[in-house]
Design brief:
2 domains; 4-stranded antiparallel β-sheet; 9 helices; globular; disordered N terminus
Amino acid sequence: MQSKKIEDTNLPQQGGDMAQIAMVLAKQQQDNMIVLNKDLLPSKGKFYPQDLRVKKLSTIDIKNLSTLTADTLDGTMNSIIAHNVKGINVNDILVGDKFWFVFYLRNLTYNDYPYNIKYKCDNCNKYSIYKMQQKDVLVNYLKDDFNPEFTMDNEDKIEISFPTIGTEVQCNQILKEPEKYSIDGVIDEQILNIACYINTINGSKVSLMKAYDYVCNLDALSFTNFGNYMAEIDFGVKPYIEIECECKNKITVPVSLSPEYFMPKITNPNK
């Protein structure tokens, strides 16, 4: 898609109002965006009252995504979402929606051009190629009857809030420098991840580290029951797809965010 050129008549002349220039540029950017159907999100958009607009990935976006490493994964994905999803601060986007946005933006950019996944069937031992598209992305959706209140075995009332990208950034910082947050310099990642879901305890709002301390001191039964409930209500994209082989055997195949996924070899239809 060709970018629209801003005509001279649309811009103030030299020495004009910079605010007006900014408005024109913002309008140009908005013209290249589409309103997202929030029902498609794993969260079904229930926590985003405002309209969300999305646009196709740029060349720089694709280059950054095609060179992902374990160390750059979170930062790059957050930047990509911030650049291409408007109407919300990236830190307010739910972690459960994060990977869905990356898959969606990639498929929006390439008009859902298939990604070839090579797999081996564990039944017939045959190697095959499956052409993955957006419809193949497996999603756990937020349950319509989700209850944000949970009662612990000790009768404590917990109000649940799903972690955002901002919460995730905070958790990563804590895990990177645990000595700043813990007397013994040790932070348990699993317990911290569960603490991310606690917004209030008996009506009082708590910080992430207060929630962490609270979870650390739970009895084993309460911890297990709360963790199980978090797993039950959680939502997001599954890291695999399900394929049916020619022999009718159903296979689970992991999906990796490889360079080829973001820079596919697209066949020229004119050739």
